[in-house]
Structures are given as structure tokens and as C-alpha cells.
């Protein structure tokens, strides 16, 4: 069965373990964009791959300019892949 959403802690874990952000930076991100947090294009591609592989959700290219909160909202509001 496919997951129904992405928890904040799961997104936090992806950003810290797979992307390499500091836990405190993610916790205190507020309205900071991924670029503001230091996520480069390779890190963003890794994030896209992680959420696609694990949750069947897609992040559009413009998501690199989104805050962590907006990404969380998008991942939980978007329909999942239906293979």
C-alpha cells in the first residue's frame, strides 16, 4: 500500500540525511528557501528522487525556490503516482 503522506519528521530526515543539511537549520528554516539553506541543484535532484522513490510524489523544478513548509504542504496535497 502506498503511503498517504509525508510527515514533517520524514521530510526533516530526508533533508538532513540525504541532502546533508544541519538539523537545526531545517528546524529553524521558517520561510527560507532550499537555496537559502544551501541546497544546490544536485541536492535538489536528490530530494526530488527521494520523494519520488519513497512516496510517489513529484516536486516541480520551481520547488527549489520554495520554503520547507511549502514543500511539505505540496507533498501532502499532491496526488500520488497510480501505477
Task: Describe what this molecule looks like in 3D.
By secondary structure, this protein is an all-alpha fold. It has one domain (8-77): Non-ribosomal Peptide Synthetase Peptidyl Carrier Protein, Chain A (Orthogonal Bundle), CATH 1.10.1200.10. 49% of the residues lie in helices and 0% in strands. The chain has helices at residues 8-18, 23-27, 41-55, 68-77. It is globular and about 25 Å long. The mean pLDDT is 86.
The CATH homologous superfamily corresponds to ACP-like
Mean pLDDT over the full residue set: 86
CATH class: Mainly Alpha
Q: What structural category do the secondary elements indicate?
A: mainly alpha
User: Which runs of at least 5 residues are low in confidence (pLDDT < 50)?
Assistant: none
CATH architecture descriptor: Orthogonal Bundle
Number of helices: 4
Whole-number tally of structural domains: 1
End-to-end Cα distance, whole Å, is: 12 Å
Query: Which band does the percent of strand residues land in?
Result: under 5%
Q: Helicity level, as a percent range?
A: 40-55%
Radius of gyration: 12 Å
CATH topology: Non-ribosomal Peptide Synthetase Peptidyl Carrier Protein, Chain A
